[in-house]
Amino acid sequence: MEEIIRYFKMIAHPEGGYYSETYRSSMNVPGINRQLMTAIYFLLPSGQVSKFHTIKSDELWFHHSGGPIVVHTLDENGHTEHHLGMDLNAGEQPQILIKAGVVFGSTVKVESTYALVSCVVAPGFDFRDFELCDPSSLLNLFPNHKEIINRLT
Q1: CB 83 within 8 A of CB 93
Q2: Which of 9, 18, 102, 107 has its CA 20 to 30 A from that of 71?
Q3: pLDDT values of the chain reduced to their tens digit, one per residue, 153 residues
Q4: Residues paired with residue 116 on neighbouring β-strands, in sequence order
Q5: 53 beta partners
Q6: Is there a contact between 116 and 66 (Cβ–Cβ < 8 Å)?
Q7: How far apart are CA 21 and CA 14, in angstroms?
Q8: Are strands 58-66 and 49-54 parallel, antiparallel or unpaired?
Q9: Please, are residues 84 and 115 in contact by the beta-carbon 8 Å criterion?
Q10: Neighbouring-strand partners of residue 72
């Protein structure tokens, strides 16, 4: 894991884990001040969490290596676990989509490992569109999901 962090020159992400930007489109979306698309590597060690947050763009996740990762979402359907990995027989998927504005965070399924994924955001990611979620606000919206909210905030 440390070798991957060094190789990709990853830095700590405010939500948890480590990231390295790999692509930022030179094209802009007409009418808004955003690049067409961005991409990062994201590494989450087991024992850490990616805290609940929102962004204003769609985000595709692709699993590369390490253990499976669970992307937790909170929306009108309540709490959903999206299992990202390569064990298709266990219900994992190699790719998932998180729609703009959905509350999400993640955990690694297997102890003593990590998950390495790519995240592609369109329109492109901008930290001005990134918001860590307040636990009390989430608890007001999703009172039946106290355990996961407390874990990921």
Answers
A1: yes
A2: 9
A3: 999 999 999 999 999 999 999 999 999 999 888 899 999 999 999 999 999 999 999 999 999 999 999 999 999 999 999 999 999 999 999 999 999 999 999 999 999 999 999 999 999 999 999 999 999 999 999 999 999 999 999
A4: 43, 65
A5: 104, 132
A6: yes
A7: 14
A8: unpaired
A9: yes
A10: 81, 105
